[in-house]
Specification:
There is one protein chain. The chain is of the alpha/beta class. Helix content is 58%, strand content 8%. Strand 3 and strand 4 form a beta hairpin. Helix 12 runs parallel beside helix 21 and helix 15 runs parallel beside helix 21.
Amino acid sequence: MKRILIRLRQFSLSAWIFIGLAAGILCGLVFGEYCADLKIVGDAFIRLLQMTILPYIVVSLIKGFGSLSAQTARDLFARGGVLLLLFWGISLVVVFLLPLSFPHVQSGSFFSATMIRSVESVDFLEVYIPANPFSSLTNSFVPAVVLFSISLGVALIGITEKGVLLESLGTLSDALVRVAKFVVWLTPVGVFAITASAAGTMTIQQLARLQVYFVTFNVAILLLTFWILPMLVAVTTPIRYRDVVGPSRAALLTAFATDNLFIVLPVLMTTCADVFRRYELETEETRTYIDVIAPVSFNFPNVATLLKLLFVLFAGWFTGSALQISDYPGFAVAGTLSMFGGAKLSIPFMLDTFRLPADLFQLYLVAGIVNSRSGSMLAAMSLFCFTIISTAAMTGVLSVQWRRLGSNALASMAVLAVSLIGTRGFLSHATSGQPSLAESVGRIQLVRNPSPAVVYREAPDRALTAEELQPTLTRLRRGGTLRVGYLPNTLPYSYFNDQDDLVGFDIDLVHLLADEADCQLEFIPFEYGTLPDRLNSGQFDLAVSGIPVTTEGLARMQFSQAYLDVSLALVVPDHLRQEFATMDQIRDMDGVRIGIPESSYFRKKLTAAFPDAELIEVPSIRSYFEKNTHGLDAVLVDAEGGAAWTLLHPGFHVVIPEPVKTRQPLAFAVAQENGAFAEFLSDWIALKRSTGELDELFDHWILGRGAESKEPRWCVIRDVLHWVE
């Protein structure tokens, strides 16, 4: 036992971190969702790591810049700027090459309404300019804290009597590093808790939907982290490849496990100084340069940050709207500049800029569960290599080996080519058996168990009985049947799924109503143009299927309170989506033909918006996708329903022309003289909205979360040992 303890004590910190990582993954696989509570331990560990970071940045930057001469400070910004552009260039080249590994598939845009949501604005002045430095420290606005610290440090350059202050700052910096090193020894425990929680709660479906982006992103991570960046150090400085990768292991593993580059900053800076000391390259200014370069470069987009732009290219591939090579220059400039605001700002902005479905940002967030961890590892290596090369340039030990640089560049290109070919082959095989999103739409079932119902595929030809002619509410109180009119092909509101069951948002809502009213249902099909006459003649009690509330409809029918507000949009062929991007572009088109519902209300609205367009009434949106006998360029739909149709027909795209976003209420329609029932339905819808049941149906049918499996997460104790249900 004593020998085992001795051997365990000989393990390095990076070895213990790796053990904690492996144990966390194993624990997550064995216990599954029961590991979720370990997230509390992981969060506590991250807070301990974070408590010294901002103070350390402030102290090190003030001391570092204050110790420089004016000339040295100018050289630092000039040389560091050139090197930063080099690192950005490497990252963007990799991003532009990675789509070559995407397999050839046909896909549609996602079944979601988030394409109409506005991107939250960011107050860049608040983030970057510290009107109140203490507020910036409190809110962790790192760029503002850095600007304040640099300003104070630069101000110290011209002050002669600063020795005592700099010495005190150096002592405080050493104390903060000692605290950080102590906390780092807890890393194996924190890594175990964080990894077990993530491995136990991440679903197989989340990984399956994103495997193309996930695989290509992480192939790039491995190439950049363990080949391209370390080799760049090896051919530009006297430091060998193994002395770049080896000493940085603990920081890389910590960054991966904690998903936080910020907390490993002190460790990386100390490791950089150790590497220079080991090679006897250390000068009096080495540590000063490291203390300045690392915190400053931390606030600029790094290699890992720009690599996240790959998601935008993935989104183009996924929707069948891949970016052209001519788009790449603008993509590079817009992507780099927008990343100064962070990926959560940049990705929606880039999706918007290149007219890709904004709802795909949800997938980016899902991918971030795993990819952000490996991205943090690359960010740590990027910061480490950037600091080493910049410090070498400032201290005069930069020595570019041009012949070796050329041979390594060729080798890197060969490795990248082999990786792209291998990745494409693997992904082509892996995605060949995956169900398409269209199949997912066909598999969605009702949220709750359906009430007893008779579904007519054709309207019954029979006379109404005396009981059926009674007022609807009177009949329901006696346990009678509720007759519901529906449109058979109105995704996602009412349609027949792969099991030939009538499903959809409205159908689910009606089943909920019937369950609470304790009545049976009859579903009777109708055509949209006949709706008012059939309602008012009593052939059914209410009509569903995404019925829009219009002025002409209000004159002939009663409507309940709206259960959903949708956004009007156009569905166009993919190759025309750029031409329909704005209202002005559509007005400038010659001979544009737009399909509209059989309604004078929409005709008047579109005539006012596009006076030169030819508007053609279509009985069903299905005819536009399958035959398009009228030669339409676009068809008017709601964005929520149009997104579902583009899953079944991926050659089409939903466009909401800027800048107008028109909302349209959807409601239940009842007969003109059935006001009491309309009022009842309005009150019931208000009740369902307050209980959150309408939101649940929205998530299920509009956002498409009904296509995901609801089975418990696979784990050993449930699915292998059967210890729990």
